[in-house]
Amino acid sequence: MWILTSVLSAVFAGATAILAKCGIKKTDSDVATAVRTIVVLIFAWLMVFIVGSQKTISQIDAKSLIFLILSGLATGLSWLCYFKALSMADVNKVAPIDKSSAVLSVILAIIIFRETNNLITKLIGVIVFSAGVYLMIEKRQTTASEETKKKSWIIFAVLSAVFAALTSILAKIGINNVESNLGTAIRTCVVLVMAWIIVFLKGKQREVLSIDKKELGFICLSGLATGASWLCYYSAIQNGVVSVVVPIDKMSILITIIFSRIFLKEKLTIKSITGLCLMTAGTLVMTIFA
User: Fold this and answer.
1) Residue 41 and residue 33: Cα distance in Å, rounded?
2) Alpha-carbon gap, residue 163 to 10, rounded angstroms
3) What is the reported pLDDT for 140?
4) How far does CA 165 lie from the centroid of its chain?
5) How many CA atoms lie within 13 A of 81 on its CB side?
6) What radius of gyration, in Å, describes the C-alpha atoms of the chain?
C-alpha cells in the first residue's frame, strides 16, 4: 500500500511544480508560497477531521512534536528556495536539482535508520540517479549578468534539495506513533507561520491584495496538489522504507517534465532526455531491489 501512496505522491507533486510556475509569472515567489500554504493547511486539517485523528493531538509526545516542527521548518525553507529558483529559471532546469534531494535522503536513511538491505544495489541506484541529475543541468555560453542569475537560481535549487532531504528524515522520526494526516497538518502550521513571517519581514504583505486572479487560481490549485502529495507522502514515509519512498516520490520529475513540455513549451535536449532516463533507471534500481 505504501508503494501506491508513494506513486500518488509523485503524481501530485509533479502537477504542483507546473501549477506553481503558472502562478508566479507576475506574483512574488514569497507571497505565492505564503498564500498556497493557507490552501495546504485547510486541506490538511480537513483530512484530519475526516479521519478523526484530531482526538489524538494530546497523545503526541514531546519528541515527536519537536521533530514535526523541525520538519516543518525544513519544509518551509525548501519551499522558499524552490519557488525562488522557479521564478528565475525553467521548470525542467530547477526540478532535477531539487529532486536530487533523493540522493541525500537515501544516504541519510542508510546512516540514521540503518536501511542497509541490498546496500550495494541502493548505492548503484544513487550513482545512476546522480549522473542523471548532472546531465539535466544545461550548460551554455552566457553573459556576465546571465551568469550571475544562473548561479543564483542554482544556489536556491541546491538549498531546496538539502532542506527537502532534511524534511524527509526529520518527518520519519517525528511521525512515529502519530497519525500521518495529523502529522502533516501540524507541520503545515509551522510552514504557514514561517512563510508569512518571511513575507512581513520583507514588507511584501501588501502585494497579496494585488495578485492577478488567474495566477491566484493556479497558486490555489498548486496548494491543493501539494496537500494531496503530502498526505500520500507522509503516509508512505510512516509505513514504508524511507530509502525507497523518497526516490519514488522524486520521480515526480517525469510528470513535471512532461507537463512543462506540454503546457509551458519548455524544450529538452538529447542530453537532458538521457539524464531523465538515468534518473528513472536509478529510481527503479533503488525501488525494485530495496
Assistant:
1) 12
2) 18
3) 52
4) 9
5) 21
6) 18
